[in-house]
What does this fold into?
Amino acid sequence: MSRTRKAVLGTTVLAGTVVLSLSLSACGKADMTKQSSPFAAAKGSKSVTLSVQTWVGAQSNVAVAKYLLEHRLGYHVDTVQVDEIPAWDALSQGRVDAILEDWGHPDQEKRYVKDKKTITAGGGNGVTGHIGWWVPKYWADKHPEVTNWKNLNKVAKQLRTSESGNKGQLMDGSPSYVTNDKALVKNLGLNYEVVFAGSEAAQITQIQQFAKQKKPFLTYWYEPQWLFNQVPMVEVKLPKYTDACAEKGAKDPQSIDCAYPTTPLQKYFNTEFAKSGGSAAAFLKNFKWTKDDQNEVSEAIASGGLSADEAAKQWVDKHPDVWKRWLPKKK
Amino acid sequence: MSTASAPPAAQRGLGADAPKSGPVQALLDRRGLAKLLLLAVAAAVLVPLAHATWTGGGWPSALTVDVSGPLGKTSDWIIDNRDSHWLFVYFLGHLSNAVVLSVRAVYLVLLALGWTGVTAGVTLLAWRVAGPRIAATALLSFLVSGALGMWVPTMQTLALMVVAVLASVAVGALLGLAAGLSDRLFRILRPVLDTMQVLPAFAYLLPVVLVFGIGVPAALLATVVYAAPPMARLTALGLRGADAGVLEAVASLGATGRQRLLTARLPLARKELLLGVNQTIMMALSMVVIASMIGAAGLGDRVYQALASVDVGAALAAAVPIVLLAIVMDRTTAAAGARLGADTATGGPAWLRGWRAWAGIAAVTAVLALLGRLAGSLVWPGAWAVDIARPVNDFKGWMVDHLYSGVPVIGGTADWAAHFTNWVLNPLRDGLTALPWYGTLLVVAALAWLIGTWRTALTAVLAMAAIGVLGVWKPSMNTLSQVLAALAVTLVLGFGVGILAAGSKRFEAILRPVLDVMQTMPQFVYLIPVVALFAVGRAPAAAAAVVYALPAVIRITTQGLRQVDPAAMESARSLGATRWQMLRQVQLPLARPALLLAVNQGVVLVLAVVIIGGLVGGGALGYDVVTGLATGDLAVGLVAGVAIVCLGLMLDRVTQPTERRTTGKGA
It folds into this structure.
């Protein structure tokens, strides 16, 4: 067989495959919003796809839910890592079945839950989230005044880095997280520069590095977070969060000048999954735990060196009283 | 990421250049002066005018167009109509469906074969087309991937790769065929393809996400768009480069156009075709990792997830199979290409020849797959997995503890990074931002015109102007300053190591595998250890860029120096030149085209990583793209993406040697 013939043969086979796969799908409409991942449920069993966000707390939710779904309810669970807002789109399209921890996205909620009705609210996951500014405890112990925003300008000098120039550095994390920090710095008249680490991983690495050298720093951070167990931090008091301020901020995000609210973290399901997801949907609806539970798993993953699955198993073995309540009642 | 493709590229560029470099050089100098004069005159007229109309250093706001409104509306429209509009339901939906089905089909086949079947099949295939050594590499690579506990993600990536590469090769070959046969099409396509090759992969992600949403179809299509151009270029070039004499002979035998194509032109172009396949594979593999940001799953996703929890070890465990896959695929296709050159189509032992070989491969694979199935181990047995994450993390921790700060005399890495930021990046950024915009345009024009032609200069200037019009002048200058700083470091190191490697065969041999790994390692893996060593900011982004761009620069430099005419060297030596004199006065000037090519490649590669540096505090355009992807705010991301495209275009044109390279590009 000559080379050319072989090449031609190869091309024919290839073209055939493409045509075949096209024609397989080419009978009428193809709604691309109803396609699942090609890697989903390869074992041909009942399957659920969960969205994992980039922070470890969200990974803990998913790890435990996955472990229980697989070992107690006999599902196959796929996970997809997606950022917060694209995850809403994926959820609406059914590419993922559930988000287990959402920090509040009013725009998306209005579009998908109220208008399109492709997403159903699934209630809280039991954890309350809080965003704020934090300083390390070792620094706050020596200079108690830094825990109030009014004194931040006095210590700006200590917080200079090569990235912030002659201002103090306020470190922010991933661009996808909810933040008003630039507006806050401006409206509160602070001599600070917001430096974006670009990802949470980069931010954590930097915080650990600062802590190792006992250097002062000021960072955007949030609760619950496993890093608090490693690097104790104290929150900086910002002007009190009020409804009036929130309303002003909703109109013009540039004008916000008060602290972040505390948010009960929410679960969201794809509407179809919520309706016909069987015991998996029932289980995920019941899924509800506490900050301490979540942190236990998170820390095991992020600093204990366990895989998400091992960490979940460890927690599940220890706390049957918590998760027994989530299992759907047998009919 | 073209491990094997850079050398041939360099060779070809040189081959074309070397003979004429003498007289052309002299001509260029005289012409260069004229060009500069002309530019100076133009500047003398235009600058006062510009200065009078729009004051201030930055791009005048009167000349910007705000596109975020329409872009935001487009994005909303797509989301609202994705499940109802005919364009999506009857066309894009099918496309997306076809992707899902094909990837799933390949994936299921791979899973059904089990690890025994896949390993055996790939090894035998490599043996048949590339010889026993590469077969051994393939065998080892797949075993290692399994041992790292990465079997399933590896298969996912492989499934994605198979479909992506087939699609890219098909699309590329079709485009190349058209361009190879029609002159007009060739003229239209060539600049487009040239340009697509220099764009950072990051810039391709947003538009596909806009249309397809996060997921495998988007990831795969981005990969195809990214990986098809080299195939198209090389096919077209191969078809056009066919020996006229042979074609004439075939025509005189009365062959029809179709026959001519099938029996003469395509076979004559087979080396280019295989080189094209090779490049396409490498580019697809590098894209598969970056595409994990938009839902590609597989190994890339593992790397990305591990980085979210600062787990360098786990990231490395997923990165090693990527590197191994790349090396196996690269070596296999490269060896297959080299064998095509030799006439005898012998490969492996006698029983591995002809149709029997293929039947044999199929049979052995089937038997082993069956054995695996009977033994009940389809997926790699978990007990055989080795955990490398912990030792790697320990090592990283140790390194960071000891190098970060306060090392006597030389200071720690964090101190270097601070100095680099304060003394190099900051002045450069501030200088570029403070430079009046028309000044920047003039500098760009002068550089591009001196090195290239008026066409390249015009493209470069227009690209820069487009950045201004989009209203992202300031962040673009910031990105540019990072690129320039990183490029300077890369060139100093790259030329240094390249000169050493050119001087010593043994050193080069040691260097080769290191460079291979550096080039194929996904850029993501560099990011976190770099942050641990250099603190958050622009310095780690620059450092990652240097690491990524170094191999290509070193390779091209070494090659260029090696190719210097031995006669010239000999005569210099006989005149009593010292080694240093020889290097400075003979080798380097004669290797000038190669060095220019190295600069060009370096710039393109550095830009690609500086953009990804947005993930570790690099800020500027990269950060905007990340923001756009992460928050679904496509207006921000797309504008930044276009600016990156323009910046890449400008940098490429400014550094483009007169003789355009025929192939070759990294990331």
Remarks:
- Residues 47 and 76 of chain A are 5 Å apart (CA to CA).
- The radius of gyration of chain A is 24 Å.
